[in-house]
């Protein structure tokens, strides 16, 4: 189903579950049948199941599925080629899919934080033991590739379509755990980091802001925003089911105590992402991170927080490294396609 029949087109990576599914729900509520929604997912069975659930809730919806693994550059390039062939423009690109690798729980830290910083315990991943040195099949830091680089490649590939919309929005799903102290430009892929997830999310923040600054310099009608879904009860990190279940009750309890980051549901967690997509540009600033929040009774709202630690020099160095890697992967993919193409 092509986009020419409809006014707007949105792409949501990781759309089959979690915050990605919540983004889809909120978009369809707001934009209705004037929107074509592209669910960019890795698993076809899960994608189709999620699409059916959305159609049951929104029978009028125009929903397409395109398969992509954002942690694989070759897959992202193939996905982008399919999008460019099928659609004439892109209004919203939600860079949402991501991973948090885990090899277990640091129980000592957990019990310490229970008594010293219970809010931090429920907001951050301090007790999650993250593997160090993970590399994907393409030789890139695994978490960085999925959370940041794959989306950078997608943006670069779809930049013309975003521009054609006249008001292209790129919305990154970052995290309240994103922290400048977790990131080093000398380890920009987070391979040596003890906190590759936090490092990758800070990279998302920097890429989002630096990209908006470039679009602004080039008078390109695209704006890139960074957002946080707050704390959502999900299975990211691959923790045991009993831990995930126990956390849900704690999230609700802390929200009743007034901790507004405890959104719990993906629907509440998605409010900031959709806010950054639909609000007039005059009411937004790409120097802020827009955070999904909930009051103690579960009513969701959006809070803006300036990213005070943003360093333009470091961000531009990161963009340069991403761009060089992108061009290298693109050339390698083109050469591979050419050498393996059938001949007459």
UniProtKB/TrEMBL annotation:
Gene: PARPA_14172.1 scaffold 48340
Assigned keywords, A-Z: Lipid biosynthesis, Lipid metabolism, NADP, Oxidoreductase, Steroid biosynthesis
MF-aspect GO terms: 3-beta-hydroxysteroid 3-dehydrogenase (NADP+) activity
Annotated family: Belongs to the short-chain dehydrogenases/reductases (SDR) family. ERG27 subfamily.
GO (cellular component) term, any one: lipid droplet
Organism in which the protein naturally occurs: Parasitella parasitica
Gene Ontology biological process terms from the UniProt entry: steroid biosynthetic process
Class of this enzyme: oxidoreductase
Cross-referenced Gene3D superfamilies: NAD(P)-binding Rossmann-like Domain
EC number: 1.1.1.270
InterPro entries: Ergosterol_Biosynth_ERG27, NAD(P)-bd_dom_sf, SDR_fam
Domain of life: Eukaryota
Protein name: 3beta-hydroxysteroid 3-dehydrogenase
């Amino acid at each position: 189903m092509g986009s020419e029949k409809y006014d707007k087109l949105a792409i949501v990576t990781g759309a089959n579950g979690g915050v990605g599914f919540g983004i889809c729900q909120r978009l369809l509520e707001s934009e209705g049948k004037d929107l074509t929604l592209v669910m960019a997912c890795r698993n076809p069975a899960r994608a189709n199941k999620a699409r059916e659930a959305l159609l049951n809730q929104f029978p009028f919806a125009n929903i397409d599925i395109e398969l992509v693994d954002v942690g694989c550059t070759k897959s992202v390039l193939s996905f982008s080629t399919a999008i460019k062939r099928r659609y004439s423009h892109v209004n919203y690109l939600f860079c949402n899919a991501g991973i948090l690798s885990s090899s277990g729980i640091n129980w000592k830290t957990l019990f310490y934080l229970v008594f010293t910083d219970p809010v931090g315990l429920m907001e951050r991943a301090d007790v999650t033991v993250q593997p160090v040195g993970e590399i994907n099949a393409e030789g890139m830091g695994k978490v960085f590739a999925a959370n940041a680089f794959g989306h950078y490649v997608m943006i670069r590939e779809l930049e013309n379509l975003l521009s054609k919309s006249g008001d292209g929005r790129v919305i990154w799903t970052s995290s309240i755990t994103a922290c400048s102290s977790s990131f080093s430009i000398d380890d920009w892929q987070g391979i040596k980091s003890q906190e590759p997830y936090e490092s990758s999310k800070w990279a998302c923040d920097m890429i989002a802001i630096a990209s908006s600054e470039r679009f602004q310099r080039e008078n390109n009608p695209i704006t890139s925003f960074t957002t946080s879904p707050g704390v959502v009860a999900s299975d990211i990190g691959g923790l045991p089911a009993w831990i995930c279940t126990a956390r849900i009750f704690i999230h609700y309890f802390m929200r009743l105590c007034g901790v507004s980051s405890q959104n719990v549901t993906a629907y509440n967690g998605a409010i900031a992402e959709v806010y950054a997509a639909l609000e007039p540009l005059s009411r937004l600033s790409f120097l802020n991170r827009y955070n999904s929040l909930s009051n103690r009774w579960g009513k969701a709202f959006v809070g803006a927080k300036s990213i005070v630690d943003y360093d333009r020099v470091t961000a531009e160095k990161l963009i340069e490294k991403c761009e060089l890697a992108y061009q290298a992967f693109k050339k390698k993919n083109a050469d591979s396609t050419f050498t393996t193409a059938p001949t007459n």
